[in-house]
Amino acid sequence: MALDWRHTAEGIDWDELSALYRDAPLGDKPPDLLRTVFGNSLFKCFVFEGGRLVGAGRALADGADCAYLCDIAVLPGHQGTGLGKQIVAQLVERSRGHRKIILYAVPGKEPFYRKFGFLRMKTAMAIFSNPQQQLERGYLSED
User: Fold this and answer.
1) What is the CATH number of domain 3-103?
2) How many angstroms separate the Cα of 99 from the Cα of each of 21, 65, 75, 102?
3) By the 8 A CB rule, do 131 and 140 touch?
4) Contact present, 59 and 71 (Cβ < 8 Å)
5) Which pTM does this prediction carry?
6) d(CA 131, CA 141)
7) Residues 6+ apart with CB under 8 A from 95
8) Side-chain half-sphere of 36: how many Cα atoms within 13 Å?
9) Are 17 and 55 in contact (CB under 8 A)?
């Protein structure tokens, strides 16, 4: 079945997107939160198959200096098909022209992003709302 690619949030079922993130699994992202974060993202990508949302991603970007890819999610039944790679490629392409394109990956997935030219940053730091949980999940290090 053909994939339907959309780059606008118009008509998105935020409950369906929330379920996609749970199934992917990228955690519990409530519909209202997703509506806000996608609404504030310069670039967005939604992929449908037969009217069903099967993948999504977004990039926060300021139009010149920095673009930040985040929330790349693909339904488990579509993982391993190249769909995630296509979503990242489209977001990277839309972000071209920015001085830097940044993302942070699920621990262990870094080799996937290296294929797009991403390299590990030595000085990246973050403040999370729940730092202990992120330490346990491998997103943060106290080193």
Assistant:
1) 3.40.630.30
2) 29, 5, 31, 10
3) yes
4) no
5) 0.91
6) 10
7) 43, 59, 61, 67, 69, 101
8) 5
9) no
| Pair 10, 63: CB distance under 8 Å | no
- DSSP letter at 130 equals S
Instruction: Please say if the pLDDT value at position 105 is more than 90.
Output: no
Maximum C-alpha span of the chain: 47
The two structure tokens encoding residue 130: 């729940």
pLDDT tens digits, one per residue of 16-36: 999 999 999 988 999 999 999
Per-residue pLDDT of 60-102, as tens digits, reads 999 999 999 999 999 999 999 999 999 999 999 999 999 999 9
Domain spans in the chain, listed from the N-terminal domain onward: 3-103
Q: With pLDDT > 90 as the criterion, what percentage of the chain qualifies?
A: 83
Q: Which of 103, 121, 99 is nearest to 113 (CA)?
A: 103
